[in-house]
Amino acid sequence: MSSPTAEPGSWLGMHIFYGANARPMVLECVRPLVDELTTLGLLDSYFYLNYWQEGPHVRLRLKPRTAADEPAVRAAAEAAVQRFLADRPALYEMNAGFRGELHEMLFRLEYPNGGPPELLAADGTAAMQPNNSFAYRPYEPEFGKYGGAPGVALAEWHFRHSSDLVIDLVATMNLHLRPVVLGIASQLMLVMAGTFLPGRDDLATFFDAYHQFWRHAFGGAGFVDNIDYDSMYERSAADLDRRFRPILTALEQGEPQRLPVFLRGWAEHAAQLRDRASALAGSGALTFAYPEGAEPVTVTDPHQALIRLLSPYLHMTNNRLYVTLRDEAYLAYLIGRALRETVPAR
User: Fold this and answer.
1) Is 259 strand, coil or helix?
2) pLDDT digits (tens, 9 = 90+) for 177-204
3) What is the pLDDT of residue 92?
4) Are the C-beta atoms of residues 73 and 62 closer than 8 Å to each other?
5) For residue 288, what is the enclosing H or E element?
6) What are the φ and ψ backbone dihedral angles of 257, each rounded to 5 degrees?
């Protein structure tokens, strides 16, 4: 048991480079590790995300309960990751074929004027780490995006819930099937957005803007181009109405218990997240500076703060679900159009 006066632990950033789908890793490695560290009283919090830089990898964030607990947390994490990589190594080369081309494309989009030297290989291309390896990297919170230190602390609390939810879904749902992933992702997006922005017009406007953001950010890069949104929507409109209408009705009537179990817990969490973010905004604690280089602005209107925070909250849960940028743009279009055409309030 740690002393009440013990120095708090600091976040550790472990990047696990793995040239395959990482769902087995979060279920068979991350979840047992977190459970073990929590049982031992060594862990204050955790979350994870997927990322592409230096090769596909899981960014595992672990926060020891105290500074004195850090060596034990490191040792347990390293042992767990090494066991997993030995038992279930990724068999695909990190830079083979399309994977390497995609990495170069993302690198150029991220660093249009050239990347920093530490991320470049000897030939000037984007460097990749060895497959089935791990390394510690500094954890750099996105203060500008989430509203400063109070907003980052709130985001980290949310990210743990999001990570737990996705690992639960990996364990219980057929997430290896793309239609299942997209169906679950669209419902999670609608539940959180509907909790943050209960007005249907506001919801539709938000999802229209969210769709346009992805199209603008990655248009011309091959991620969100050449999609026949109209035809895809027409084929799914009836099913969208069947799935979305009960969700919106339950949220609007304040009856989340009517939702399926995984959505019910998510709705309850979203309501807590909304209330905490609104309280921070109302107290003047959220100062945003995003995109990078933007002038800092303190947002005291809870509604405006929720709109700013909703996009990255949705995106990071989709990231954990392995929803691609292309699919995220597609889902935003479907939800926005459905809200206007098939599931308006009756």
Assistant:
1) coil
2) 999 999 999 999 999 999 999 999 999 9
3) 80
4) yes
5) strand 287-288
6) -65, -15
The Cα–Cα gap between 199 and 271 comes to: 15
The token pair that represents 118 in the structure block: 């530490």
Grouping H, G, I as helix, E, B as strand and the rest as coil, residue 52 is coil
H or E, element range at 12: strand 12-17
The pLDDT score that the predictor gives to residue 344 is 63
Is 255 a residue whose pLDDT tops 60? yes
Contact call for residues 10 and 44 (beta carbons, < 8 A): no
Sign of the alpha-carbon dihedral angle for 317, 322, 324, 330 = negative
Token couple for 189: 């997006």
CB 1 within 8 A of CB 41: yes
The residues near 50 (Cβ < 8 Å, ≥ 6 apart) are 22, 56, 57, 58, 59, 319, 320, 322
Side chain identity at residue 105, one-letter code? M
Could you please report the per-residue DSSP string of 114-166?
Answer: ---GGGB-TTSSBP-PPSSEEEE------HHHHTSHHHHHHHHHHHHHHHHHH
Which residue is associated with the tokens 């109405």?
Answer: 241
